[in-house]
Design goal:
The complex is a heterodimer of chains A (291) and B (285). In chain A, 26% of the residues lie in helices and 24% in strands. Chain A is an alpha+beta fold and 291 residues long. Chain A has a domain of 173 residues. In chain A, strands 1, 2, 3, 4, 5, 6, 7, 8, 9, 10, 11, 12 and 13 form a 13-stranded mixed β-sheet that branches. In chain A, α5 links the parallel β6 and β7. Chain A is globular, with a radius of gyration of 19 Å. Chain B is of the alpha+beta class and 285 residues long. The chains are: A alpha+beta (291), B alpha+beta (285). Chains A and B meet through α3 and α8 of A and α3, β5 and α9 of B.
Chain lengths: 291, 285
């Protein structure tokens, strides 16, 4: 399944940032790609400070333009304490100078430069009750961050880096149900759709800094990873669309949101299509019987 | 789990009598929360995924700004959503708008016609990998602000502690983790739960490297003690040394000892004297 991604595995190395609280419960060899011991980072140890500084730069370059660069304390409180970080990087000595310059890598820096990251944190939903056993892994996770430097400058990392990062990330964590939030106009929505049909949880989200954020829920199966990595134009598990949502039509977003709040079910069933200035998302609007 | 049915006694029972407890939780997280912690019914539930919640969630962000803004770590709105409302929950106390005195209304910049709940405190926590393990993300209490800025408000002493204690019960927390700065006065609240086990003493992964990460087991006695129940006394070891809150080198030395496998606790409150902040530390293993 990873044949088409060998170029990434030749140039990049996986890394895993996890505290002692969670590290032993994660899969450090997702789909057979092993995270080397030297790339397993405990964020509570002082010696990893320089690598974490580089990681923060990746986040500020990718989410900064959205006004959503992650404050450093949020990275600690909301990412590495409850969850963990998986991604790919390349050794500084193997990178072209223009990349090192663009990433403000200090001349004395030796080691891995992160180029992508996948952060997931557990959710209360679906978690076993505490007294039912601490060793039961949480089945429901929030995809907190997915980033690749190729978003900022295509060519910094090998093509396909984002896809391989999410596919392996979904196997690092014991995720059965995945929640996520993304902007309707964001490029990553098309990536998420390749996981399979996405249940729309919110279509318009005033609780978020960017109200035109949507939240989704996806069931993660083996087929989800296969389709993600191979990128079929139409997911085999998706029902046909019967509604096209214009994502720049605020009234339409609010209308779908109001229907969701009354119990109507919507799924995103294919990648957004762009025609001129129109961006439309193919959706399945279910009737009250769920059909 | 054996239910603790003892009546709740706190340092300020007025808060339980007069303020309105609330929960912010999605419909899929809500069934995992305790709705009557220590017999305190929480009837007001805000679903952050609904349009109608927008006004109240904006007031929560305002509360955060009023209490954390001066320390430079106010929470962006997306952080509230991604880090708290979607994965975890928020518990707090508030007053209905009609009962809020004019100066406090002005602090919140309440919209004309707003007749909903106004939050006076909140506790935000995020679930961790193990069931029952949670990370404390944010404790906001308006008590210190109102003490200075609105003499028409009653004494809200203890609001922060009571909010955190009740929240940990409502979230069914069995083991708690948190992070705070050596110089933070929040340490006075955190040690009310008992000795704090140190997981880090110097934390480059955090914005403030002079951050400590702590943990404790959440027991009924710990929660009751934190809320000021005079009948509960917690065992606390004597300090072996005091760490000065500005002494970064001492923090790094302590961090190195933690990374080498030694174990330490903060047994009691810091002492603040003439600009010096000293935090007690005890070696326990």
């Amino acid at each position: 399944m990873l044949y088409h991604y060998e170029r990434i595995l030749d140039r990049c190395e996986p890394y895993l940032i996890a505290t002692d609280l969670i590290a032993d419960h994660l899969n450090a060899s997702p789909l057979g790609v092993t995270v080397p011991a030297r790339n397993r980072v405990n964020p509570q140890h002082r010696r990893h400070g320089a690598f974490l500084d580089q990681l923060r730069l990746v986040d500020s370059l990718t989410f900064g333009p959205y006004g959503m660069a992650m404050p450093q304390w949020v990275f600690y409180d909301c990412a590495v304490m409850p969850g963990a970080v998986f991604g790919f990087g390349a050794r500084a000595e193997t990178m072209e100078q223009w990349i090192l310059d663009a990433l403000h890598v200090p001349s004395h820096y030796e080691g891995l430069i992160p180029l992508s990251m996948f952060i997931a944190i557990p959710m209360v939903a679906g978690h076993a009750e505490p007294w039912q056993g601490h060793e039961t892994p949480p089945p429901t996770w929030l995809l907190y961050t997915l980033e690749s430097m190729n978003q900022v400058s295509p060519g910094m990392g090998p093509a396909g880096l984002l896809l391989l990062t999410i596919a392996l990330g979904l196997r690092v964590f014991p995720i059965r149900t995945l929640y996520g939030a993304t902007q309707w106009r964001g490029a990553k929505l098309a990536t998420y759709v390749d996981l399979g049909p996405l249940d729309v949880v919110t279509a318009y989200t005033p609780a978020h800094s960017l109200p035109r954020t949507m939240c989704f829920r996806a069931e993660i199966r083996e087929e989800s990873l296969q389709s993600l990595l191979m990128g079929p134009r139409v997911h085999p598990m998706s029902p046909p669309a019967n509604y096209l949502l214009d994502v720049d039509d605020l009234d339409a977003l609010k209308s779908v949101q109001r229907e969701l709040e009354t119990g109507r079910r919507y799924q995103i069933v294919a990648a957004p299509s762009v025609h001129g200035a129109w961006v439309q998302v193919p959706m399945r609007r279910f009737d009250s019987e769920g059909a | 789990m054996i239910a603790d049915t003892r009546p709740l006694s706190t340092a300020n029972d007025w808060i339980l009598r007069e303020l309105v407890p609330f929960l912010v939780a999605t419909s899929f997280n809500l069934p995992h929360l305790e709705r009557t912690p220590y017999g305190v019914p929480i009837a007001t539930v805000i679903d952050p995924l609904r349009l109608e919640s927008e006004s109240f969630l904006s007031l929560l962000q305002r509360l955060d700004g009023l209490t954390f803004g001066p320390e430079g770590m106010p929470m962006p709105r997306w952080v509230f959503f991604d880090c708290a409302e979607l994965p975890g929950a928020i518990l707090g106390f508030g007053r209905w708008a009609r009962d809020v005195p004019p100066r406090t209304r002005a602090l919140f910049q309440l919209p004309v016609g707003y007749d909903g709940l106004v939050p006076y405190s909140m506790y935000v926590a995020i679930p961790m990998f193990r069931a029952g393990h949670w990370f404390g993300h944010n404790l906001s209490s308006l008590a210190p602000v109102l003490r200075q800025r609105d003499p028409d408000e009653p004494d809200l002493a203890g609001l922060g502690s009571i909010t955190k204690g009740l929240a940990l019960r409502a979230f069914r927390v069995e083991r708690f983790y948190g992070a705070t700065q050596w110089l933070s006065k929040a340490l006075f609240i955190h040690v009310k739960f008992g000795p704090l086990q140190l997981a880090t003493a110097y934390t480059p992964a955090h914005q403030e490297h002079e951050t400590l990460t702590y943990a404790f087991d959440v027991t009924d006695n710990a929660l009751r003690a934190s809320m000021g129940d005079p009948a509960v006394r917690l065992a606390r070891p004597e300090p072996d040394f005091w760490l000065e809150g500005h002494d970064v080198e001492a923090m790094k030395v302590l961090q190195d000892r933690i990374e080498a496998g030694e174990r330490f606790v903060i047994p009691t409150s810091p002492r603040w004297e003439e600009g010096r902040v000293e935090v007690p530390v005890t070696r326990v293993g």
